[in-house]
Structures are given as C-alpha cells and as structure tokens.
Design a protein that fits this description.
- This protein is mainly α.
- It folds into two domains: 65 residues, no CATH class; 40 residues.
- The protein is built from four helices and two strands, in the order αββααα.
- α1 runs antiparallel to α2.
- The longest helix is centred in the middle third of the chain and has 25 residues.
- The two termini are 33 Å apart.
- The model has no long low-confidence stretch (mean pLDDT 84).
- This is Flavinylation-associated cytochrome domain-containing protein.
Length: 106
C-alpha cells in the first residue's frame, strides 16, 4: 500500500514540477499569467513542497517496513567490514545531499 502512495506522490510531484518549470511563468509578468487551474504559482510551489515532504515520509516508512530485507541483503553482499563501509558511504551521501540542499538556493 505504501508503494502505491509513493508512486502517486512521485507522479504528482513530477507533474507539478513540469507545470512550474514549463507552464507557469517566472518573474515579472501580469498577475493573470501566473495562475493555472485557478491556483497562483506560489500555491503550486507550496503544493510541490508538501508533496515532497509526504514523499520523504513515505520513503522512511517504506524503508522501515522493509528494514529486515535491507539488512539481510546487505549482509549477503558485504562482510562485517563492508557493512561499516556501506553505512559510512550511505551517511556521507545523505550528509552531502543535506549540505547541497542547505547551500544551493532554488
């Protein structure tokens, strides 16, 4: 059930991202041009952000539900030292993504 919600949320984020990038204009234009389906560009941005937060929450739930499988597959592919290395790499990637998110302005 979580997988279906993940797909729906990802698809909705994809569509709202396309709308924000290609359909709804950015910058100084007449205020009527910044509306699509009755919603202003800022409302679409808020919706896109809300969908992203829902998606991240669902990913955490999905990984939590499947944590035994993740641990089992990791143990099959890596030895104990490899598991530590895998964890270090995973944490490094997450910290890098968080750092980029905090530093790079949209």
């Amino acid at each position: 059930m979580v997988d279906i919600h993940l797909f729906i949320t990802l698809f909705a984020m994809f569509l709202s991202g396309l709308l924000l990038h290609f359909v709804i204009p950015v910058g100084r234009v007449s205020s009527g041009d910044k509306y699509f389906l009755g919603l202003h560009r800022h409302s679409w941005i808020d919706m896109h952000l809300f969908l992203a937060l829902i998606f991240m929450t669902l990913v955490i739930i999905h990984v939590g539900i499947n944590s035994k499988l993740v641990v089992q597959l990791t143990k099959q592919h890596f030895h104990k030292a490899g598991i530590r290395m895998f964890g270090a790499i995973a944490i490094s990637v997450l910290l890098l993504m968080l750092g980029c998110w905090l530093v790079v302005a949209p």
